Amino acid sequence: MSKKSFTWLFTVLLGIPVLFILFVTFSYDVSAKLDEFPVPKGAQVAGETGSSMTFTWGRASGDEGIPFSYEMKIKFAGWEETNREGAWVSYQNGETTIDLITDSDYLYLALGEDEAD
Fold it and tell me: Which spans are transmembrane here (predicted)?
């Protein structure tokens, strides 16, 4: 392999993970209302109560759940998946629990019952 080919291959192999990390980092914000849980920047708030928020978001799916990049952002932010049943996933960070439910173009996030009081 020539030096030029090796340099090009190295640049591509290094660039893909860097671009993915940048995409994950800048595609999501954190919500103060939901104890710093990541929220997609492209999601539109559809409803809000004291301890929950609903969003319309084209990348959410009842069958597929959330995109891999969102799963990675949640994990990078320190949240650990603790339970999963169908379209419902529970995440925990310290003593805080967040329930995430998806449906077609719909995302629901809520503080766990203990935190909502």
Answer: 6-28
59 Cβ neighbours under 8 A, 6+ residues apart: 40, 42, 66, 67, 70
Residue that wins the pLDDT comparison between 16 and 37 = 37
Predicted TM-score (pTM) of this structure: 0.79
Give the Cα-Cα-Cα angle 31, 33, 36 (nearest 5 degrees): 40
* Strand 96-103 relative to strand 106-111, pairing: antiparallel
pLDDT at 114 over 50: yes
b/e string for 85-94 if b means 16 or more Cβ within 10 A?
eebebbbeee
| 80-85, strands of its sheet edge to edge | 44-48, 52-56, 106-111, 96-103, 88-93, 80-85
